[in-house]
UniProtKB/TrEMBL annotation:
Pfam families on file: Allantoicase (PF03561)
Top-level taxon: Bacteria
Enzyme class: hydrolase
Enzyme Commission numbers on file: 3.5.3.4
This protein's UniProt keywords: Hydrolase, Purine metabolism
Gene3D superfamilies, per the entry: Galactose-binding domain-like
Organism of provenance: Paractinoplanes deccanensis
HAMAP family (alphabetical): Allantoicase
Pathway: Nitrogen metabolism; (S)-allantoin degradation; (S)-ureidoglycolate from allantoate (aminidohydrolase route): step 1/1
Reaction(s) catalysed by this chain's protein: allantoate + H2O = (S)-ureidoglycolate + urea
Record's protein name: Probable allantoicase
Keyword Cell cycle: no
PANTHER family: ALLANTOICASE, INACTIVE ALLANTOICASE-RELATED
Length: 327
């Protein structure tokens, strides 16, 4: 499996991604392409247009051409690779696909996007049916949209666009959640992720259920579990939100936050505090020092739905990132 597949899916509906144009959706809607959940399938489940598919499926072409879907990335950024997932499409998957990218400001119409000049990211490449088809991308520029072209027709279950988030600083307030995945934060280290990956804590919105968060196995020693988050930008943190929503019999008993700048020693942001099950906990903090990374320690183990760290980013840091990736 290519390493880029572990990076966030910039096109995911969880980030606010969406399909803004598709030339054909006869058998199944293109909106399925950006669904965050894995595709599912119920054989011999028929609607008025045939077998029901959890994906995008176009009609059989009887003339030359290809079918196209344009996706607005929920989190614009540098694309490291794409996954054209043809799960459950066997005799009806496209034999080839290509991917192009576009970077635009604002909210262009579908007609404007169709007429735009796109940048090739993945050339016309063969696909396998009922498979994840992974393609690395080498372009280092920031993109806001991708175009999936299938040659000539057929069905694709999901389009995953994995990469590194590069937010537009002009669209961020002075104080924002510097631990948000949608702003470019990421988990770098973790002691345990037996029941749930810690990246889930950094996702937008409220947790939908207990599985939509970070949860460790039960500890049988004297230690504790922890996770390290690289912030979206070096920042002075002023508010910490530790949310145990949905975790009732398995919430941590206590938690603490510490920070560091680069490779410096850890310093205290929030001393060890007691936590309550199924509760958002908000704490004013004033560490007096800028942090590039934050470590969350939970005692001794358990689950955390969301981690929010609101702070003021180092002036000019995000602007420089944006300029470098937009050239």
């Amino acid at each position: 499996m290519d390493a880029f597949a572990a990076l966030p899916d910039l096109a995911s509906r969880a980030f606010g991604g969406g399909v803004v144009h598709a030339n054909d959706e006869f058998f199944a809607a293109a909106d399925h392409l950006v669904t965050a959940e894995p595709p599912v399938h119920s054989p011999r489940t028929f609607g008025h247009k045939g077998q029901v598919y959890d994906g995008w499926e176009t009609r059989r072409r009887r003339e030359p051409g290809s079918d196209v879907a344009i996706v607005r990335l929920g989190a614009p950024g540098v694309i490291r690779g794409v996954d054209v997932d043809t799960a459950f499409f066997t005799g009806n998957f496209p034999p080839y696909a290509s991917i192009d990218g576009l970077s635009v400001r604002g909210y262009p119409s579908a007609a404007d996007l169709v007429a735009a000049e796109w940048v090739p990211l993945v050339p016309k490449s063969p696909l396998n049916g009922d498979s994840r088809n992974l393609f690395a991308v080498a372009d280092e520029r920031r993109f806001t949209h991708v175009r999936l072209t299938i040659h000539p027709d057929g069905g694709v279950a999901r389009l995953r666009v994995h990469g590194v988030v590069v937010p537009d600083p002009a669209l961020l307030p002075d104080v924002f959640d510097v631990a948000a995945a949608a702003h470019g934060a990421a988990v770098t280290e973790c002691s345990d992720m037996f029941y749930g990956h810690p990246e889930k804590m950094l996702m937008p919105g409220l947790a939908q259920h207990m599985g939509d968060g970070w949860e460790t196995s039960r500890r049988r020693d004297d230690g504790n579990d922890w996770v390290v988050v690289r912030l979206a930008a070096p920042a002075l943190i002023s508010l910490a939100d530790l949310d145990t929503t949905h975790f009732k019999g398995n919430a941590p008993g206590w938690a603490a936050l510490s920070g560091r700048s680069g490779d410096s020693d850890w310093f205290e942001i929030l001393p060890r505090v007691a936590l309550t099950p199924d509760t958002p906990h908000r704490f004013r903090v004033d560490p007096g020092r800028e942090a590039t990374h934050v470590r969350l320690d939970i005692f001794p183990d358990g689950g955390m739905a969301r981690l929010r760290l609101h702070g003021r980013a180092r002036p000019g840091f995000l602007d420089e990132q944006f300029r470098r990736r937009s050239s």
